[in-house]
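User: Fold this; tokens only.

Assistant: Input:
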Amino acid sequence: MEKYDVIIIGGGPAGLTCGITLASSKGKFDFTENRRYLIIYGDYSDLDKALLNNVPGIKKGTKGEDFLKQIRKQAEEFENLNLKKGKVVKAEGEKGSFIVHLENGETYRSDYIVIATGFHSFDIQGLNVEVVPHKKSPRQGKIMIKNENGKVREGLFVAGLAAGVPTMFACASGSGAEVACDILSEWAGKTVVVHDVPETN
């Protein structure tokens, strides 16, 4: 059974940003040198039907589906980050020994899990999370997973709309980055942030 340090369930803005942030820490911290990450994503993201007019740095009128492809391509450039298309039906275990089950029968192990499955529903069995009404959704009937600053319990995090952030790209993406930094900080035993700086000659 293939083993990862972090498995991210969901490949929208939050999940992809979380994975990219974790993967980009290689070369910056000794404790991340041999770590591996997996994003498992499905057929659909809310970003697929979005039109981006108010995201800083993104050209007005950018189609969400095009931007999502661009982010996935960026994620695939990291050798320590794998992307897998599939549906997670069950996840079980605890920090250090999670097992994630896909609909096709494949299983993966991980030390941490990040849930980034959006705010429409949550039907993954085995994690015993508390699903509650989404507090910041403009539409009724949407859900979130009860958490404290992105943490559900030891080893289990939630990011993006599933964590209860507003339904804006920047909010979902920022939530994914914050969760990644929280995991890195746990490993470091102190607060760390992944920054890139230009090389100087």
